[in-house]
Amino acid sequence: MPTTALADHVLLDGVSKQFGSTRAVESVDLAIRRGECHALIGENGAGKSTLGKVVAGVHEPGTGTVAVAGEMVRFRSPRQALEHGITMVAQELSLVPTRSVLENVYLGIESSRGPLVDDVGHRRLFAELAERSRIRLEPDRRVGTLGIADQQKVEILRALARDAELIVMDEPTARLSADETTDLLAVIRDLVGSGTTVVFVSHFLDQVLEVADRITVLRDGRLIRTADAVDETPATLVEAMIGRSLAANFPRKVPPAADSPLILSATGLGRVGVFEEVDIAVRAGEIVALSGLVGSGRSEVVRGIYGADRLDAGAIRLEGEPATLRSPHDAIARGIGMIPESRRDQGLMARRSVRENASLPRLDLFTMGPVVADRRERVAVAEATTEVDLRCASLDMPVDSLSGGNQQKCLFARWMIDRPRLLIADEPTRGVDVGAKRAIYELLARLAAEGMGVLLVSSEIEEVLGLAHRILVMRGGRIVTELDGTVATEGEVLEAAFGTSTEDHSDA
Amino acid sequence: MPDQRVVPDLDMATIGRRLRSSMTGSGIVWVTVVLFAFLSLTTGPFLTEANLRNILDQQATLLIAASLATVAMIAGGFDISVSAVYVAAPLVALRVENSTESVLLAVVAGVLAGLVVGTVNGLVVAILKVHSFIGTLATSFMVFGAGYLISDRSILRPVSDSFRDVARTRWFTLTTATWIAFGVVLLTWFLLSRTRFGRHVYATGGNPEAARLAGVRVTGITIAVFMLSGAAAGLAGTVSASRSISAMPSDDFSFLFGVISAIVVGGTSIAGGEGGVWRTVFGAFFIALMINGFNLHQVDPIWQRVIQGLVILVAVGIDAWSRRRPR
């Protein structure tokens, strides 16, 4: 619905934001009108989240100006943004799980009677708030006992209790089920209906089209266009987001030779309550993708194969030989490498050097007795980093001074030093810029073409379709479908992942 | 849009980074050198062979224990039990000496006693997953108690005269205590900076889950660093008993405070994953020089404490500040 009559609530003029050497957002001019739902969309790394955080005061813009209700502001913290009626519901919720809904909503803004917290007053206000927002929650429930969807609602109530006029929501539906998503989108429409401005950051096109009044598309940190939602379709949005046709983004698929040997053959893998009866085979030269929704058990399965998590059932054979992998240490010794899901939490020692991070798994190759042979290590790491096109001023720089893309390449460099037979890549392009993404795709394709088996886990359907020779779709801890990667469509993958006939879940 | 507007922003960030890296880099070296120069110039009795030799000798036991406690700290482990081991291990050593009259066996027994406590600590932390601070606090009390039991609540003295030679022999004007400390520091430096074990220690402290996924045997590393720290504290206690020619039970935690102070003032992060034994050496000497200077200038001991506390606060403050990632 066009809302041209409304005044500008937030006006960004030439806003840029840089992290290290990565330009996350570049020269963005954007007007957010009062009382609209304004969606920011783009691929991972397009800058949509960063832009949302600039609006909410989480990031201070590097250059450019921000005006709220016509007044120039420079937010140095979310608190300052809140003073101007702007707040954010982040991906990571910031609630106190051990306290009640009511306490969480009024945390930090408690009204008091003398020394006592005005509980009665809070309850009255809470009831009003619930009425106004149509969010129904039990005020005395402990927040930790609520699901993610309800916790998000607590965050929204908290924002409203602070008289927020603009709420930035960063991928609020990413961790929700289909029903919960529908529910949240209705809440957002209600908020907008009652005059609150919502900035909705998402990469789910159908949701954006359903809920937003206007949509801004970002690509590589730049604003491509802002348009009324009614004038957009999934196809026009995808074109704007990618800027080229989908296929061009991925290297050509080279099918593995018909007689190429099995690298991994896992049968009947199970872990109580997480996944069961999982069979996976990967041949030399083959990229097998494990697809499915977040929580379907994809990462857990590959972690089980890698020895990172315990397996309760199943057998693993590597090149035909039975293998018992009790730890990643065992897996590495048997020729398996892994790029873990979260490079910050599971991948890198942030403050150690690129060299130390890259050589860590195969340090044994450079040791004489207990001593590390420095020069051999340096040479090997230099070669490995060159091979993955990791760019840094010096290999002795701390790895957290690199851009996200280069950090990810550092994880890949680990496995270039002595190539494993099987590489498990769990979300290998999460949070990297488009250039690095492409480089990683090419690297994966090249490694496979050279005979490595690749087991890929990815939430990005385009990535799965663009890279995999075979696609295994998981749902509820089981593999439900196997698809041929050369002919599979997005619809087929999503249908299997959701376990429904194709509703309106397709992104493109 | 004009790109030059980026420049001032970047400059501030660069300055901040440089400042941070110089503070956490070699800041402790410079302040120690400056303090040394200052005391040399202003304080007559400071720069004498006897005074410097004394400082070295007095720091020896602290450095022996602190070196390997630094390794534990880098691996992410906080070893509270160094005090208890420092008190109890020499009691074991002297019991063995009293019954065997062998100095060598006594020293071995002191180190082994520390190793045993360290092993227990390592198992408690790595297997039971008790936070190291609490786990080693608990074992501390047990070890303090064991000290009273071993010694029958009395002061133990060596029966042979040669026990005192462990710490008190002079080689090239320095005491053997100093030489032992020197050896332990060198060994620790080698371990941390040159060996695979050292890399695994840094990785474990920097990010245990990432280290595990990279094939580091995190459990093994954790147990090993506590074993080393325990053994070093046992050696330190035994050397100390040799210097004072006696050992007695107590539940005195003060040795730990010296160890922790040296580590954090040196700039090893209590968050793990960073630091070095050379830092601890400078941290220890900075504090020692400071106290020496106070004493030579007859500063009230009460104020000495206050200032020492401030120095520690500044050191951990810098660490916390440097950890804050610039947005």
Largest sheet of chain A: 6 strands, mixed
| Mean pLDDT rating of chain A | 87
Overall geometric form of chain A: globular
- Low-confidence regions of chain B: 1-11
Tell me the CATH architecture of the largest domain in chain A: 3-Layer(aba) Sandwich
Oligomer: heterodimer
Main sheet: strand order of chain B: 1-2
Shape of chain B: globular
What would CATH call the class of chain B? Mainly Alpha
> Looking at CATH, which topology of chain B would you report?
ABC transporter involved in vitamin B12 uptake, BtuC
Distance between the ends of chain A: 22 Å
Q: Major sheet of chain B, described briefly?
A: 2 strands, antiparallel
Describe the overall structure.
The complex is a heterodimer of chains A (508) and B (327). Chain A is of the alpha/beta class. In chain A, strand 4 (63-68) and strand 5 (71-73) form a beta hairpin. The longest helix of chain A is centred in the middle third of the chain and has 16 residues, at 178-193. The two termini of chain A are 22 Å apart. Chain B has 327 residues and is mostly helical. Chain B has one domain: ABC transporter involved in vitamin B12 uptake, BtuC (Orthogonal Bundle), CATH 1.10.3470. In chain B, helix 4 (82-100) packs parallel to helix 6 and helix 12 crosses helix 14 (301-323). The two termini of chain B are 22 Å apart. Chain A binds chain B through residues 14, 16, 18, 27, 59-60, 62-64, 306, 308, 327-329, 331-333, 338, 340, 345-352, 356, 359-361, 363-364, 367, 370-372, 400, 414, and chain B through 1-2, 5-6, 9-10, 194-200, 202-203, 206-207, 209-217, 273-274, 325, 327.
